[in-house]
Amino acid sequence: MRSDHDDETKDPTATVRIVDIARMAGVSTATVDRVIHRRGKVSAGNLARINEVLERVHYRPNLIARSLASGRQYVVAVVTPRFAEGEYWADFEAGIQRAEAEARRFNVVVRRFGFDQYDRSSFERLLELLRRESFDAAVLATLFAERVVPFTGELDRRGIPYVFVDSDLPECRRMAYFGTSSFDAGVVAARLLFERMEAGADIVVGNIRHRGEGGSNQCRERERGFRDYLARHDFGGRLLDVELRLDDEACNARTLDDLFARHPSIAGAVTFNSTCYILAGYLASRRRSEVRLVGYDVIERNRRMLSEGIVTALVAQRPEVQGYRGVMSLCAWLVEGVRPASVNNLPIDILVKENIAYYTNNII
Amino acid sequence: MRSDHDDETKDPTATVRIVDIARMAGVSTATVDRVIHRRGKVSAGNLARINEVLERVHYRPNLIARSLASGRQYVVAVVTPRFAEGEYWADFEAGIQRAEAEARRFNVVVRRFGFDQYDRSSFERLLELLRRESFDAAVLATLFAERVVPFTGELDRRGIPYVFVDSDLPECRRMAYFGTSSFDAGVVAARLLFERMEAGADIVVGNIRHRGEGGSNQCRERERGFRDYLARHDFGGRLLDVELRLDDEACNARTLDDLFARHPSIAGAVTFNSTCYILAGYLASRRRSEVRLVGYDVIERNRRMLSEGIVTALVAQRPEVQGYRGVMSLCAWLVEGVRPASVNNLPIDILVKENIAYYTNNII
DNA sequence: ATCGCAAGTGTGTGCGCACACACTTGCGAT
DNA sequence: ATCGCAAGTGTGTGCGCACACACTTGCGAT
Question: How many domains does chain A have?
Answer without folding.
Answer: 3
